[in-house]
Structure formats: C-alpha cells, structure tokens
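Here we describe the complex-level prediction in full. Unlike the single-chain runs in Section 2.1, the four entities below were treated as one system.
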Amino acid sequence: MADGAAETGKVRMARDLVRLSDVAKAAGVSQGTASNVFSRPDLVRPEVRERVHQTARELGYAGPDPRGRLLRAGKSNAIGVATAEPLSYFFEDPFARVLMQGISEACDQRGAGLALVSARNSERLAWNIQSALVDGFVLLCIENGEKLVELTRERQLPFVALALGKPDETISAIGVDDYAGAQMAARHLAQLGHRRFGILAIEFDETHEGPVSGAEIAAATYSTARDRAYGYFEELALYGVDRETIPIYETRSTAESVRRGLEHILSGPQRPTAILAMSDRVAMFALDMLAERGISVPLDISVVGFDGVPEAATASPPLTTVVQPIAEIGRRAVKTILEHDGGVHRESLPLELVFRRSTGAPSARS
Amino acid sequence: MADGAAETGKVRMARDLVRLSDVAKAAGVSQGTASNVFSRPDLVRPEVRERVHQTARELGYAGPDPRGRLLRAGKSNAIGVATAEPLSYFFEDPFARVLMQGISEACDQRGAGLALVSARNSERLAWNIQSALVDGFVLLCIENGEKLVELTRERQLPFVALALGKPDETISAIGVDDYAGAQMAARHLAQLGHRRFGILAIEFDETHEGPVSGAEIAAATYSTARDRAYGYFEELALYGVDRETIPIYETRSTAESVRRGLEHILSGPQRPTAILAMSDRVAMFALDMLAERGISVPLDISVVGFDGVPEAATASPPLTTVVQPIAEIGRRAVKTILEHDGGVHRESLPLELVFRRSTGAPSARS
DNA sequence: CTTTCGACTTGAACCGATTCAATCTATCAA
DNA sequence: TTGATAGATTGAATCGGTTCAAGTCGAAAG
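The structure predicted for the assembly as a whole is:
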C-alpha cells in the first residue's frame, strides 16, 4: 500500500542517539562508572568524572535516558489523574480546576510529576490507563466511575477514588458527607422560614432526566444524588415538610436540562419559595433562568447550591452553597497515594454552608 | 546465601508483580508468543491465546508493563508542557488554562497523553525536564524562558516555545505579532479621539519595576514588552502623539505593582484619558483600582488590555482588549511537536481587537 | 512421495539505564 | 615487608517487555 512511503522511511536518517554505553566506551571507563558520573558523581574520581563529561559533550550525549532509568528504578515518580471525560475537562470544569490545584500543589511539594489520563471513549480510556507511566492514580469519578475503577484496578497500582457515586468499601476513596451537607442546606432554608421547596437534582442514574419518584431515588445508581436527596428530606421533615409535596427533577447538569427542571418545579400546585440545587452548576443555571424571567432571587425565590466552586461566589446574586473542601480533597488524594502505598484508606471530609445573597427569608410577595 | 532462595524457587515478595515471562513459562509458551497474545492477538492461535489469557488471570498478571514496552518502543506517546512556575499555575492562570484547553484538545484528538512538567526552583525544574517521560515539550515561557529553553534543548527532544520573550530563530516557536497587536490597541484609542496616554507595561527585564526610559525599552530582555511598546509608539506617532509625553511604567503584574504604576501614570503633568495595558491581567488590576477611586471607566479613562483571557469579557466594565488565539496556539503547538518531528517551525498567529465597554471617546470631564 | 506454502512459534537480541559484589590500587600503620 | 583499610572501578545481572529471523508443522499442490 504505502510502499513508496516505506521506502523513503528507510532512507530516513537512523538518528539513534548516543547511549551511556557509547560514552563509557569512548571515555575508556566501564558503563557502571559512566552511570555513576551522572547519578552519583561523588563516587567517581574528579579527574575521571571530568573526562567522562567531556566525552559526553563531544558525543552529544543527552544525559541518562529516563526510560532506561525508569525500567530499572521501577518508580516513575509521577501520579496520574484519570477521568472518563475529554482531557480539556481538567481545565474547563470549575470543580476539576480547584481539585487540580490541590493535587498539583501536593505534587509540587513532594516533587512528584503529574500526568493527565483521560478519554471520552472507553476503549481509549482503557488503553490510556494501561499505558500511563505513573506510580498511582487519582480517579475523578464524575461519570462512569465504576468502569473507571475497574479499569484502574487491573493496572494493580495504588489509586484513590474521588467523588465516587457508588461506595465500594474495598477501595480507597476520599469524599464528603453528602447527607450532612444536604441537611445543612435544608436547615438553612427552613430556618429562614421556607416551607415550600423544589429540588433540582443531579444524576441519580446513567441516562434518566425528569421528575423523580421516591422509589427511583431509593434505586439510584449514584449515591451522591441519593444521599443529598435524603439529607434534604430528613431535615425538612423536622420542620414539618412532607417529602411527597416536594417536586424533584433530575437534570443532566446542562442549561437546557435545568431549564426544563425549573419549569417543572415552578409549575407545580404551589410555587416553591426555595430551590435546593444539588450542584453549583445546576444552581447557577437556575439563577440565570430565574433572572431571565424576572423572578428575583432571593426576594421571590431562594436558591442554595452544593459544591462551592469559586464561581458561586461571583454569581449574581452570589450563591449560598454547601462548600466542599475541594482543594483539600485533592491534596489528601495525593498524600494517600504517595504514603498509604496501596492500602485501603477511606476518608470523609467536612462540609460547610456558606451564606451569600441567593437566600433570604420568603417575602410577602411569594 | 541467596542460593537458598533460588532453591525454594525464588520466593516472590508481595511487592514485585507477575511478569510476562512468568505467564509465558506457566502457560508453556515462549515469551514472544505471550507478548503477541497481548499486543498482536491475531498472530496467535485462538486456543493458545485463550490458554495464555487464562494463565495470566490465574497468576494475577496486570498486563504488559508500560515501562518495558516504553524502553523497547521508544515513544511514550505523550507530550509534556513545561513552565518555570509551580504546577498549580496550569489551573490558576487564565491564559494558561485557555492554552491548556487547546493543547489538551489536540492531544485528545491524536490520542496523545499529557504530562505537566513544572517547578518553581530551577534545580528541580531541570530534573523534572530531564526525567519527563514524553516525546516532546511545549514550553510555556512566561518567566525565565531562556533557562527553560536551554534545559529542554539538552534533552534533545522536539519542543516548541510559546510566548517566548526573546526570539531565537533556531528554535521552533509559535507566537503572535505583538507589534501589530499593540498598533491595533493604540489605533482604537486614537480613533476614539484620545491623545493623552499612559502605558502599564509588563516585564521588560528580569527584575525591574518602575518608570521606563526609551533607552531601557530598546535594551529590553523580553521582546514581547518591547514590541508592544513600539507598536503603541509607532501608531500613536501617526496621530501626532509624541512618545516622550507618554508615561510608561513597568509592572510586575501584581496588584501592588499595578497600583504603583497607576499612581505614577495618573500623577503626571496632564492626566491621560486612556491607558494602554500590556496584559489583561494588568488591565484588570487597573480597572479594580480605578473603580476603587471612583474614576469611571470609560467615562474618565479608557482602558485597553492585551491577551484576551476569558475573564476580560466579564470584567466590569468588560475589557476592550487585543485577543490572542490562545487555544489555537496550543493546538498548533501540539501539532508542531507531533508532526514536524524536530524540524524548526516558526509561526505567528493573527491578533484581533475586541471592542467592549472599557473604552470610549474621551468625555468633556477629562 | 516430494515440494511448497502458510500459519504459528521459538529463541535470542535488543531497548538504556542502575546496582552491587568483587576486584584493584594506593596509602598508612605495624 | 606485610596487612589492613578505604576508595575507585569493573563486569555482569537485572528491570519487563517487543521484535524478527529462523524453525516447525500440517496441508495442499505437483
């Protein structure tokens, strides 16, 4: 087929580089000594050391090739962060960005490298995980987390799962207490005087969107959404709010999806005075749409988010939300991989409610 | 002593894992065949293939170790992005983030991995570059670009420099026409009617901050700042503005530094009606400070930035600026490394002025 | 009954370093 | 002069795969 190309390919300069053994030979020392010149200079007599360096320079030796070292040493001194999203996710998504700040900080501190491992299609993701040159993985289980865990487990390297929807006690994981966090959000609104609520949920299951029943919540694939829902319900029950009266709509975290969710919630028998959004992303979409319709937040409706991404602080109005210690989660993840060396380590970090301008007491208007 | 261990059949510690050769032996095939089972399955008789897989499963083989493959294959199929900043820079800095989006997009598309290589102290940076397992580097020459280029050159891998202050014709680089961009900014303001200007510059040299003379500009280490300055000057000259009358202050791109720069510029003999900022970062600091002092933008003073980071669009007021095709630069950089395989490739991408609310005609007030 | 051919397999040679036990060489004390 | 000691150097054994020329085997062709 491409024989012509193959031919010219052969002609191509065989630019094989200078190896350590070449340098050693040329300098008249053993390869062992040559190796020492570069990695443990103090073991070599200055005179010899200089001669080898000189030879290396003359030959254009690029220094010890990390590939060789790697094979021998075993550790690549880098950790991989993996997710089932396109690579650009790491730089676009607010949550990921803050998380990566924590991760990169910890890596920097420990002198570890950082590799981004990612792909949207699972075949390539599998390959990327198989072939990543790292000592361990941080798994960002946003979507398709189980698959990700499974793929990584095969690699037999230490890993820690983050934001894992489905808890599996046998793997290391770092997360937050979604249930308690949801309670905080609900309590906050209830204490402000709200009694009519709507919930904009994040994914309970792989593909569903739309109003959700109690049975569906119980059968949720992702425990994150389930726990948050139960947190809301349990807390609101304390204030006499019947969960059956709360419209809850499962969104796909897109603007359009949230729009539909908002419509559903606002068109119920009695309009809620407060919206519980299961993520800041969803909450902020809701904020946009409410503004579009001239519904004032928090005068007409209060909105509380979840996650605490930086954008929440500068939304208009600034979003009251349950903040996760995102960067800290990242730092701990790195620490877990680098220190707990493979052992199972599970950890749940505390959440905190940050009161901003998107929530207030229900007004007479509503 | 070790013979005893050999006798007992080499007790394998939990630490070291099963190798391909172990699987081959156990399955009763040659290592070559075992290798083919995993990397070229079609070459192996289905029956044998299955037997080997079975054996692998029983032994708990994790699959071919990428380290071995790497050494043999040569290519790691990943590119490194290097900079002389802490690692978190990639996720914090707006310019870097957009750039990384372009880079990661291109990597995704070509199935290449992405490694972040970085460190604040140059000793560690050197080591990190020496030991990065990548096929090429994208150099983000924000700070200390020359050192970065030098370190990378030693590695003898293809690389391309981005935002390199000091042009060196012998290396691959992708950049923008700073001179033309500056002209656009200046022309925009001049055409709005401005005749009194102040310039908030970015770094001309390694360590200096403060008012800058013409001679200092001519002797600048970084051509980016120099070219932008000259672009401003040349264009303004066409409108009869004498460069000697323009106060120019070299900032360190920090809030404090910009504050001092602004004070210097505003305290001149005649207050400018327009500020030319050499970066959006600097421009946005200036915006903040002008707001603080109750100076209206653009009523009292117009401000135009440079770079076109996303934040500029949402600043208050939204910043008029010269936008670089940042993501495109990233994409091209990856392409350059992966395709031009080492050859020198230089490219200059076009800039574009985006007119927003931070500029307007000088009002009677000023 | 040979030959030929194609489909698998094998075995050994790499890939580029690090490591460590063994050896060699001065140096110094007895 | 003889050891002992410390320091420098060597050589060979890894590390864990991939690759490819050469060999094996069975079936189809002559």
